[in-house]
Design a protein that fits this description.
alpha+beta, Rossmann fold, Dna Ligase, domain 1, 5-stranded antiparallel beta sheet, 4-stranded parallel beta sheet
Amino acid sequence: MRIAILGTGAREHAIARAFVDSGFETLVIPGNDGMKKSGIAIKNVDETLDSLFNATMSFQPDIVVVGPTEYMVLGVVDKLKDEGIKVIGAPSKSAMLEADKVFAKEFMVRHNIPTPRFRIVHTLSQLERALKEFDPPYVIKIPTLQGGKGSFILPTISEALDIGSRVITSGFEGMWSDGLVVEQFVPGEEYAVQVLISSGDYVILPMVWEYQRLYDGGRGPNTGGMGAVAPIRIDDKLFELIKDLVGRTVKAMLKESLAYEGFLYLGVMASPDGVRVLEYNVRLGDPETEAIVPLDSDGFVRMIKDTAFGRLPEKIQPSGVSVAIALVSEGAPYHYTESVIGLPNNTDGIYFDHVREKEGRLIVSGWRPCVVVGSGDTYEEAINRAYKKAKEVVFEGKFYRGDIGKTLL
């Protein structure tokens, strides 16, 4: 059986590794040079709709797994399905649940899905009035894909005005809506809830604790993900509340013809006042995927295969614990330093992201060159192995958080 995986990052690397290890003929499109050095076949093409579609069709896959939301927004899922290909991923209409923050908020309101109080603003005067309705810190959300960096939590009203006014005065160029979301900040514990939707039903993947901020203790700017731990234990009552949010969301998606075969991510905030949905993503998280897949690689593959062929998949049966740590370049998440990457002899558990090959060596080509994963029977064992692996990868300006997983000990 042939599996095509669309994407370029560490998430796609982890998915591809699972399929290769299970004996499937696997091709990553476009992939990256780090995957190629790890023995995974790639086909490097431009990230345009036609190039992605043509490269995929020429491979004649039995199943296609689409990783990035950007590809889904382009319409690659729609186009492949029109050709009768079995695809794991959201069509472009459904992808608006992630790409357009305004659309997502209005969807939640239409279906009484709890979410923090918010205002949608279109002008500078509306922005000023909306911010005065909320207490600090101030939450601003941009209605476009920002790689996990489109939500801002700002301590002062002047900083919130600065961010919001820049978007408004740009005329919302490149945005999916001509409005910003100004949202009430809700303190509490945030959970990464990842779901596989299949024929209108769903299964919840092992719960993950994610680390989005750049620095230890949840400080600094939002990033595309600095680390993840899976599985985590949560209270049974809380899990039932989360399941209710998932069920209501999937039911609403079916009602609006937005359901699909693929992954859905809910950012859920649990506070003393209840649980609320902060955001939707129509994909697996990154680096959450890298933490989940090693828990039951064969089960992950079976789950995707069953979904593609219209069967309700069985849940992953996690064995042990996995800890994923993002290794980032100086200047992350907005800048990077190009440098040669030094690797250990054993690259198992290293998933490549922003890298390219130059004269036979891998070079840093973006803010997050790779994600390293350590697994073990306990949190402590997995944490120690992940940090040991992090030290073995060398490049100029390397940085990583020092508290990944340690908050769970």
